[in-house]
Amino acid sequence: MLKKAIVAAFVVASATTAAQAWDGEVVACYDTVLVPAQYSVREELVRPARTEWEHRNGQAVRVHYPAVYVEVRRETHPERYVNRPAPCR
To answer: Any residues with CB less than 8 A from the CB of 35 and at least 6 apart, and which?
Structure first.
């Protein structure tokens, strides 16, 4: 009976010291933030600009057609989560 009481007292004492050992001080706080993917974009020429003569309504008309480009996107950094410093709540 005495052994059980001593063991029980030791278990209770060791549990409280273990809990106190894990009570630490908050040093910094961070929020997890989703950063969208980043892309490198360049324009590729499909058709250069040109000027042509056309007949419209019985007249000769000079018409300008602008250049046509296609955007080519390449992913440089994928979408990811980062930790950013934040005020502690």
So the answer is: 77, 79, 80, 81, 82
